[in-house]
Amino acid sequence: MPPPTHDEVMVACDALRSDANKWITASDEMAAAAGKAENLMLGKDQFGWAGDERGVVNAYETLRDKIAGLLTGADAEFDKIAVALRASAATYEREDAEGAHRLERAGN
To answer: Tell me: the pLDDT tens digits for 24-72?
Structure first.
């Protein structure tokens, strides 16, 4: 199989960057959701005395903390995916340019 053409490399790099932008958007959405989860405080006043006595308040708080942590983690991981995709695109472009330069030197 022949190596990809310069145009094919550019199309692939554009696709990688487009995908990276989608991951950044998803990351931003996770960060916003994490902030909302962190601020969604419900306590004894909302659950009532019986809810507090039965452990509902503590269970809710544990669940809220877990969800906020998962959303924050997703935010960070989605950012890492975007960085990796952009780095891959940059590497492909650099290697494509180096290969073209080598071919030009070989022809002289």
So the answer is: 999 999 999 999 999 999 988 999 988 889 999 999 999 999 999 999 9
Secondary structure class of 42 (helix, strand, coil)? coil
Alpha carbons 68 and 64: distance in angstroms, whole number: 6
* Residue 92 belongs to domain spanning: 76-108
Q: Which tokens is 14 given? A: 């554009």
Helix (H) or strand (E) holding 86: helix 56-107
Amino acid at 100: A
- Give the count of domains, the chain: 1
Judge whether 34 and 75 are in contact, CB under 8 Å: yes
